[in-house]
Amino acid sequence: MHIPTSPDSGARRCFAHRLASQCRPGIFPRCFASPRVLRRAASLAIGLAAFAFPAAARVSAAAESAPAHAPNADRSGGTRAVTASLGFVQAPRSRVVPAGSAVEFTVTATGAGPLTYRWQRLANDRPLWDAIQAATYLGDLYALNFVNAWVTLIDGDSYAGTGTATLTVKSPTSAQDGDHFRCLIHDGINPDAVSEPVALSVLPATAPATAVAPLIQTTWNNYQWPLNAYYPFDPAGGAPELGNRLGNACGPSSIARILRYWEFPRRGSGSVTLTAGNGAVWSADFGATLYDYDRMPWSLPSSTPEEIYGPTAVLSYHAATAMEDPYGTGMTVLWLGRMFTKYFGYSPRAYEAWRWQYSRDEWIALLKRELDQGRPLLVMARTAASPTPWQPGNYDGHWFVIDGYDASDRFHYAYGYGIAYPAYCDVDDIGNYNSYHRILIGLEPDRGGKSLALVAPADGAMLRAGDTCRIAWLAGGIDTVHLEFSADGGATWQTIAAAAPAAAGYHDWTVPASLSTDCRLRITDTANVNVYHRPPQPFSIYARKELQLASTAGWLLQPGATVSVDWTSAGIAQVRLDYSADGGSTWQTAADSLAASAGHTRWTVPAGTTTRAVLRLTETGPGGIAAHTGYFVVTDSDAPTVTRAASGDTVLLMHYDGDLANAGLTAAATAYGSLSYSAGALAPGRALRVDNATGGTCAVVDAHPAFALSGNWTVETWVKVNAVGGPTTAYPWMLFIGGVNQPLHFELNATARTFGAWIYAADGTNSSIWGVGSFELGQWYHLALVGDATHGKLRFLIHRADGSLLAQRESSVSLAALTLADSGANLQIGGVAGGSNVQFDGWFDELHFIRRALALDQTPPTPTAATAPVIAQAPSSLTVVDGQSVAFTVAVAGAGPFTYQWYRNGVALADATQSACVLPVATAAQAGTYTVTVTNAAGTVSAGPATLTVLDTFTSWRTRHFNSAELSDPAIAGLAADPDHDGLGNLLEYALGCAPCTPTPAATALPVVQQVSGEWVFTFHRPAAAPDLTYTVQQSENLQTWSDTGLTPERIATGEVETWRVRGAASAAAPRFFRLKVTRAP
User: Who's near 347: CB < 8 A, 6+ residues apart?
Assistant: First the structure.
């Protein structure tokens, strides 16, 4: 592109953008812009700049070509003819290479005379925005003033070919990432031609990831209320669905998504006030605003109240105002990069990449590098119908975000127009916007070289109220930090420490009694609120650990049945589920590494029958507590109260445990209307609630040939009636297969309060059984229609909730009459979707179609009676260092649930009422003998004793001997301090078993050397338990060289303070010196 300049403009040139585009939603998102206008203001040359670098002439490197070069003006006043123009046949292109790999930039050019070449570099080792002297808003124009920041290169260690058509960067490093290059050619006749600037991008040494899941979690859309709730009112009236305000176009919406992703900055910089051409006033004080990201939900429905949407609407409005673009989204990517830096503190090293300057492979590699490093990409693109870039005329364009890629190198495009538009696409085939892609590379927060990260407690940690928690961090370039705590997910914050020394790296915090599963910590540089860290995952605070399995009372399960196991917990992260068929003597793992917060899991009953089945749930990790169920039954019985397992004969089996899943041959059901789930007829599991007070609620299973049952078969279900006889429930059809002649039909007689059923056979015969039993509202009944071809019978049986038979009726039928017609219609459960007077209002559970005639008159077995608990594993004695965590555990067999009580030295311990007794920080005062009692409904048993021995350490020794004020004074409590002035520092006082504040006579404290029977004997005293110390006796003949060779240590007296001696052969040949070396482990 040729940039027109005035003759007297010199080295300084001024460019302007007409920012007049507006993004509006359509069938597919389209952004429209008004014609760009060329203007001149005084002696200031106004042109169209697609890149923020001055250039005499610009030629695109690939698909899009620039306008023809204008004739050269003769400064004498005429026009000078040029026999051959100077220009580029092949301009350089941007390159993406691994670090250390040489890379070439090449041009091909023609001119009127011999050509000379000169390569220049614009380094990215300083802010690109340094080149911008001013940015002036001129109504609907921006004037960007530049200085010449290009440096001419010479051959050397870094570059070769700087005066040729091919420039070689010999061994690029990450420090050169984002450097730009251009080539100037000279023929001695025409004015120099300057190539379009191209970028060098340097890849890290590590290989890219296989895929990156979408980074941005927000579902904020363009033109969506209430994201525009604080935008100016639309002078043209606006749309009611947008509150009659201007809409949040694609540009500011994309910016807001990126700011929310980074949660940066917490406070902006500077302010903007401007009036748009339509009279709307935009004003934002970024430096006076704290952006509350913790109160910005991922999704904002239009009905969201202001107390919820307020923080997000502020961010959205500030994103729009920061663009300084009153018309919409018509600015360049480079200008947006400057905006991110100027108002929001993002890295000034970000640079613009143009798709047409890169090969496909290098473009993909560049995008993947950015996403691998967690940087979403802000993209500007146009449709193929758009004119050549930066030419006058309307164009269709759009701002959006790329935030992930898959294993096939397809990228995730978040267009901002609802769930239909985010999609994985090829980089060159993304729908409407395939042209002129421009992306901001390296867009990330600038923290000024500072770093700050919380490292403890870990994400998802479980903290007990009242315990001491060590908050740990890593900091760089920071003096003091501000620590805060939130118990409500970040909605409100409390200060823990206003100015803790950053170099300390930790702060010990007493966990408050703010019981919550959504706790957060935040650490902030006290000098810069934008340098902070808040881990993304919450932690929990609990009063005491709890784990309780839901009761299994009444469970009668067939082997292979899949059921829901439920529990409640507090203070526990992960659990393991075990199953025992022999009352807890042996166990098999049913499920491992379950999230305790889930509260349930699906479990399939193993093969085999038993009346002593037990489940156990155990906290994962050392000292984990456990919970047990009582005995339940696993049986092959087909009694109505037994939960069914799917088999090869199963056509349909729906447990309704929170869903409409089907374990049979046919598909899951589809819900219509008001369906929900509540307590089921059988334990375990839930039931399907079909609310037809107003009609139209049902579940529908698609038609299937297997519904045409024949020979021996059973259709059974549990039902509970809520209401009958109303406008929608006058003739309740509980379940039926549709068709002109329904092959299967269960219904209620609303007047007589009886049950009925019929079948329609393939041979055209109809068999019905009416008026069976009677029902009461709110009671469970088991209904079974049994086709018994073996005996030529059709039976209809009604059982009560306890499994006892309420009523039955049968009729003799032919084999043909038991073959149901295949109507090709759906199975309707509870009525029809459109509503009618035949709806059923009530509950269903355990709907089952099977190709067997079930023997429903069986009596299932009962669980084995519970006996007193049996101790399977008693607690073991433990020896630990002072300050370590301790956990005594007991394993029990038998029928739960169990209750526990732990004792120390015969005294019951408060809150020690689980299967594990945990001491988070053991002290000498907690040493002693521990026992436990375990109780169930049948009795109590005791286990133990187990002895706890707590070994001393220097840290605990100091705590015992010095108060808090003394501990903080190294002159009193330091390693080398001697507060009693007896010549022994504190470490030696501890090592020799002495007291630091009471002078110790040398005769009793210091080691002694004697010669006994031709041996040197070195004797010293030491505590029996000092696990953090190492003692070494050494000898020397010159006080320079020391060694322990030939010295044999032995203990000669035991007790709290032991006596040791070291013997070595005596010799008169040279003097001998001895010393005791004490080393403390860190």
Answer: 341, 442, 443, 444, 445, 446
